[in-house]
Write a structure and sequence with these properties.
The structure holds two protein chains of two kinds. Chain A contains 16 helices and 20 strands. In chain A, strands 1, 2, 6, 7, 8, 9, 16 and 17 form an eight-stranded mixed beta sheet that branches. Helices cover 35% and strands 19% of the residues of chain A. In chain A, helix 13 (440-454) runs parallel beside helix 15. Classes of the chains: A alpha/beta, B alpha+beta. The interface between A and B is large, with 70 and 67 residues.
Chain lengths: 570, 327
Amino acid sequence: MSIPIHTYDAIIVGAGLAGCAAARELTEAGKRVAVLTKLHPLRSHSGAAQGGINAALSEEDSIELHEFDTVKGSDYLADQDAVELMCQKSPETIRWAEHMGAVFSRNDDGTIAQRPFGGQSSPRACFASDRTGLTLLQTMYEQALRSGVEFIDEWYVADIIYSDGKISGVVAYNIRNSDQAIYNAKAVMFATGGYARCFKISSNAHANTGDGLSIVARHGLPLEDMEFVQFHPSGLSGSGILISEAARGEGGRLLNSDGERFMERYAPSKLELASRDVVSRAIINEIREGRGVGPRKDAVYIDLVHLGKDKIMERLPELRDLAITFLGLDMIKEPILISATAHYSMGGIPVDKDGHVRKNNSEFVEGFYAAGECACVSVHGANRLGANSVLEALLFGRHVGQTISNEIDQIDLRVACEDDAVTMQSELEAILSSDGTESVPKLRDLLQQSMTDNAGAFRTKEPLAKQIEIIKELKDRFNNIAIDDHSKIFNTDLQEAIELGHMLDYSLFIVESALARDESRGAHFREDFDTRDDEKFMKHTMAYMDKGGDITLEYMDVVAGKFEPQERIY
Amino acid sequence: MDNSITTQAVTFDVFRFNSETDYLPYYKKYTLEVTSEEVVLDILNRIKWEHDGSFSYRRSCRHGICGACAIKVNGKGVLACKERMSDLIELFGTSMSIEPLSEKRAIKDMIVDKADFWDSHEKVKPYLVAQIDESPESENLVSVEEHEALLEADLCIQCGLCHYSCPSVEINDDYFGPAAFVAAYRFNADVRDSATVDRLEQINAPAQGVWDCVKCFECQEVCPKDINPIEKITKLHNMVFSEFVALDNVATRHAVGFASSIRKHGMLDEGELVRYSEGTIPMILKHGVVGLKMLKKGKVVPPWKMPKSDKLDEIQALVRSSSTAEF
């Protein structure tokens, strides 16, 4: 099949905060750039971020405290050079977003308002009511539009063009009509978002199927720290839809079926504002020990009634609305039901602090960059602090855009040819022609349920080992699927099948990496190894998939800095 | 919620269409056991995942913030992920239709071509126009009052519900529609912005602009984020005068004529309003015959018989104190 080849200086995949910020930098620098996204840019999941974005702005706060909190929160797995860069640049980045139009909530003196968040020494989360991500995403998209960035939306990127340590573009098809195209470029940046959709109870959007990660992994490139998936303490019971940490930041209290404020037992000093991993495990533990509430006894209460109507309506109106929609409960009048939900992907495509994608522990892929949740810089290490994720996406998105812009003239374009599309074409053909007996929704459900059961917030050896077998079996069954839709127009059936293929691939990375990490660190908690083992495991996992789909694990040193590891108590 | 979860059977009449293969759309029935916890998106998912994988719709965030999944249920515009089935059952009973936002723009099932929506959006300069300091040392100071002046217009998620529920959009291809006006207002109301007049010139132009709003309040009714677009449209009407971009045309004369009638009589002089807006000769040519009939039947008051309100002085004082614009 003949396929058009379009040539650009740079191609960005994903149009959330990181993608839009990078695209604007490149366009402003006069580079020819296009952003490909499988959604419309404004549908990107960055817009779902609720509570805030961190910057040490106030007199009482300091960059160093922000760095310390981030490193401590990461359980000492974060790379301190990257943390330093992020915390130092965060005040400027947030003010830059403000200058571009972001609608932050304000203090009486007109400065940007800040609220307390978990694991932080000072109220540091700048916010826009409870829709911080929305205003930031809109602002970045708007200013990208103003700069003349070319957005190519509702295109599905299915493959990268990669060989000999160098990337030269992506292969994609138009979801609207199945037209295919090669986007040939000197530089490619992935900003494809997170991978927590492989869990049943998840706060993530339908789109967060982690495609970008397995696209990379299928070329034999490594994925880093995939075992670290953050379980957010407050997902709505049943759906897992997020109730922002702002609910606890503003004073929400967690109660069990005895009416006990149980965090007093788990984190006597920080209570509800301990780090997310600590609070999530406390909630799950209360439920496991029979002190759950709600119709399924699978939740605990978060009580916000004492905040009063005015504060709830001013600070948390969206959250109130969500609880009414999904639970039929009004937080002004009554406590609502929450439990831990798979939320954020700390792991991802390994990059250095300037966004260069690693080929292995010591080499990089020429022309390949990544930023945002799909990347592992790593600023979050084993556990991300609230309000550091939109910061990472925005700040590193922009920073990596600048890096590309500075480096792109030194990169030679490797001219693409039609054969570069063969992998995508055979993937599509295999799914469309497969006439087996398995259904994609069924297999996806089995994957998600088993990931929640066996590789969730509490992990032990046997369930993890069992989960590896389950994933391998699901992969076999995936070869025997049949889809209903064979049309060329908006074939979302085909798309869901491709996405499931990706979820199956990267889920194995999560579980294999988790099984090998015989310690508990941040979000990765092993009941059979319940302490942190710095001697053996203060290292990043680097996992590689071979042609047969098997995973090999290597480890990479953490970039040390001014903060020495200490016990993490809240 | 501590009480149990209930279920009941609901029949859905679902609009199906694939522009690649179907000449005309058709409806297909699905009966599902619906639980009291579910929202409309759960139903769309179950139709796709349990019945027919080819059923297509846009969706992403699952909680009313990305704006992808707007559709119509029994003609009522809803954001599928934010609309509780229990509310719809209360409203419509256990049988309902599921349709795309705009049938004439349907590409496949619930998916519509929203090109006109995005085109309109881009025409109002939907971004802050300001000199951007790329490495600022401090933020702009914006007072709480200035922040509140946006009237939550920045919460618009571009779902298109107001646009495709607007009767003016339906009959006038040039009309920008309520969502684009919300965007225009959002930036015009922002103290940091400097393109107010540019935007007003766009939204003041005949056919495409705010004067083609018929004030039906459908946009306010349907907005899933309670943004109240018509409130912003009214604000833009006022800005057109307060920023001195009003043109002498039938739309603005209609607004001015309205105000002057109230000032003069304390009530609306309908005949004079038409004359004022359209001019004497055009009025006679366009409405002369009907006008005479209406006069005869007493449906319109002749100018010499126009009464005045009892407390005209109070009304005039009110008009003076509430007028923000001179014209």
